[in-house]
Design a protein that fits this description.
Blueprint: H1 3-20, E1 26-34, H2 41-51, E2 61-67, E3 70-73, E4 79-81, E5 97-101, E6 105-112
Parallel strand pairs: 1-2
Antiparallel strand pairs: 1-6, 3-4, 3-5
Helix pairs in contact: 1-2
Organism: Chlorobium phaeobacteroides (strain BS1)
GO molecular function: nickel cation binding; zinc ion binding
Binding site for Zn(2+): 73, 76, 89, 92
Length: 113
C-alpha cells in the first residue's frame, strides 16, 4: 500500500507550509491526481486521515480532483483521450504517443488557519 507513504509525504509538505505560515490548523488539502498515476484515491484518503492524526492536518478534508489522461502523438501532434497506459493516435493511428496528462500527483492548494 504505497498510498500510506504518499499520504505521509503530503502531511510532511502540508505541515511544513503551515509552520512557515505560522498556522495552527490545516482545514483542506486539495490534490490533483491523474487517473493513470497508479494511486487508489479512496485508499489515499483513508491513509491521509490516519497519517494526519496528531498533526496540524488532523481532521483536514482531502479534496481530490482526478485528472483524465491525455495522449499526444509524436507523428502528427494530435492530442486525444487515453483509456490505457499504451495508446494509439486517434487521428493517424501511430503508436508513437506520450501521455501528457493524467499521471499527476500534485498538491494544488492548502487551506490553513
Amino acid at each position: 500500500m504505497h498510498e500510506m507513504s504518499i499520504a505521509i509525504s503530503i502531511i510532511d509538505a502540508v505541515a511544513a507550509k503551515a509552520e512557515a505560515e505560522h498556522a495552527d490548523t490545516v482545514t483542506i488539502v486539495e490534490l490533483e491526481v491523474g487517473k493513470v498515476a497508479g494511486v487508489e484515491v479512496e485508499s489515499l484518503k483513508f491513509c491521509f486521515s490516519a497519517a494526519a492524526k496528531n498533526t496540524v492536518a488532523e481532521g483536514a478534508e482531502l479534496a481530490v480532483c482526478e485528472v483524465e489522461p491525455v495522449g499526444e502523438c509524436e507523428a502528427c501532434g494530435q492530442r486525444f483521450p487515453v483509456a490505457f497506459h499504451v495508446a494509439t493516435c486517434t487521428s493517424c493511428g501511430s503508436f508513437k504517443t506520450n501521455i501528457v496528462s493524467g499521471r499527476e500527483l500534485l498538491i494544488k492548494s492548502i487551506t490553513i488557519e
